[in-house]
Amino acid sequence: MFRQFCHISPVLPFHSLAKVETRVSPFLQRETPRLRLTTITGGLVFRHGFAISPVVSSFTRVSSFRQGHSHFSNSRFRLSSLSKINTPNNYTKPIVGRWLLLSSGLVFGIVVLGGLTRLTESGLSIVEWKPITGVIPPITHPQWEEEFEKYKQFPEYKLLNYNISLSDFKYIYLMEWSHRMWGRMIGLIFVLPAVYFGFRGHMSRPIIKKVVGLAGLLGFQGVLGWYMVKSGLSEELMSTPGAVPRVSHYWLVAHLGSAFLLYSGMFLTGLQILRDSKIAYDSFPKGVARILANPSLNKFRRLAICVAMLIFLTSMSGALVAGLDAGLIYNEFPYMGKNIIPPKSELFSKAYARLGEANLWRNFIDNPTTVQFDHRVLAISTLCAITTLWLYSRRLMLPPKARLAINSVLGVSCLQVTLGISTLIYMVPLPLASAHQAGSLTLLTTALYLVHTMKRIPIKI
Ligand code: HEM
C-alpha cells in the first residue's frame, strides 16, 4: 500500500506508520535505496524519503539519497529532529568517514617520515621535481652515479657533504624518495575514492565541498614541499658568508602548518560523518546528547577550541626551532644561560633586524635564541592552559568520551613537554626529536577529539 502511495503522491499522511519498516518500490529504490521509517508518531512523509512531524519525538532514517531537492515548505510543521542531517543534501555514508580517518592516519605517517627526512638531513638529496617519472628510483649503478653527479652541483654537497660516499648518498636519497612516494600514495588514496564516492552519491554537498577543499590543500602541500626543497638548493647559499645549506625555515613552517591543517580537516570531517551517521541511524546515545545540550558547557567548549589553537601555534613555533636548528643552543632547562630569560640585547639583536631598528621584530622569526625562548614560553603556556582546562572540567558533567579526551590531552601534554625538554638537553638526538614531533600531532589529535566530542548534537530531546 505504502509503495503505491509513494509512486503517485509526493505527500502522504502516515499517522498509521508508527514502527513500520518498509522497503520502497524498485523504482523508488533506485532513487532512495533502503528507506526506513521508524517510530514516527504523526506527520507527513514525502517522496524521496523525507518526513516532517508535528510531534517531534523521533525521526526518519534515510540512506543513500540521490536527489538534490527538498520539499520542506510547509511552515505549519516542525521539521523532524534530525532534519538537518537527514536531507538529501546532508547525508554522507559512514564509509566516507572511515576513509577520511584512514587518510588522516596516512598524513600523520608522512609528517613523522618528513621529520625523519629532515633529521637525517636527507631532504635535499633529490634535486628535481618529477611527479610522474620520479616514481622509479635509480636502479643500475650508472643511474645512481648520474643522480649523485646532479646532487654534487648543489650547495649541500659543496659546503657540507663533500666527502660522502655513493652508499651514503643512496641512503639519504631513498629517505627523501620514500617521503615523496608516501605523498603520492596519499594523493591516490585520497583522490580516487573521492571521485568514486562523488559519482556514487555517497557524499552530501557540504561534505563534497570539504573534500574538494582538502584535495586542494593536499595538492598545495606537494607544491609547498617542492618550494621548500628549492629554497635549500639556492646558489645564493654559496655566496652568503656562514650560510648553512638547509631549507628556509619559513617554508618549513608553511609545509608543516599546512600538513597539520590537512590532518585536522580530514580527522574532524571523518569524525563528523561517523557521528552524523550514528545520529541518523538513531544509535547516538540520547543521554550524551542531553548532557551536550546543557548551556553550562558552552564556555568549556570554547576554551577547548582555544587550547587546540594554542597547541597548533606552539607546534608552528617548534617548526621554527627545528628550521633554524635552534635546538642546538642553550641545551639546558629551565635556564638559558645565567637566567631563565636571556639578555634583552640577545633576544632583540640588531644583527637580525636587517633594515634597522624598526625591524627588531624579525628576531621572533630569525633569531635562534628568541625562537627557542618563544617556543619554551608557548609550550609552558600551553601546558598551563591545558591543566587549567582539566581542573575546570572536574567541575562539569561531561560525556564519557569527552572526559576521556580531556584526560588524554593532559596526559599527552605532560609527555610532550618532557619529550621537548629531553630533546633539548640531549641536543636533538634522532629518536627523541622524532618522538617529540609525533607527540605534537598526537597532542593536537587529542585536543581535536575533545572539540569533536563536545559538539552539540542536533537532536531535540
Ligand atoms: C605543548 C608542548 C610542545 C609542543 C606542541 C611542541 C611542538 C614542537 C614541534 C611541532 C616541533 C617541530 C618538530 C619538527 O618539525 O621536527 C618542535 C621542535 C622542538 N621543540 Fe617542541 N613542543 C613542545 C614543547 C617543547 C618544550 C617544553 C621544549 C623544551 C624546552 C621543546 C623543545 C623543542 C626543540 C629543541 C625542538 C627542535 C627539535 C628539532 O630540531 O628537531 N618543545 N616542538
From TrEMBL:
It is a multi-pass membrane protein. One of its GO terms (cellular component) is mitochondrial inner membrane. Pathway: Porphyrin-containing compound metabolism; heme A biosynthesis; heme A from heme O: step 1/1. It catalyses: Fe(II)-heme o + 2 A + H2O = Fe(II)-heme a + 2 AH2. GO terms for molecular function: heme A synthase activity; metal ion binding; oxidoreductase activity, acting on NAD(P)H, heme protein as acceptor. GO terms for biological process: heme A biosynthetic process. Its main location: membrane. It is found in: Membrane. Signal peptide: none annotated. Keywords: Heme biosynthesis, Iron, Membrane, Metal-binding, Oxidoreductase, Transmembrane, Transmembrane helix. Its cofactor is heme b. InterPro entries: COX15/CtaA_fam, HemeA_Synthase_type2. The chain crosses the membrane at residues 99-119, 181-199, 211-229, 249-271, 303-324, 375-392, 404-428, 434-451. This is Cytochrome oxidase assembly protein. It comes from Gigaspora rosea. The lineage of its organism: Eukaryota, Fungi, Fungi incertae sedis, Mucoromycota, Glomeromycotina.
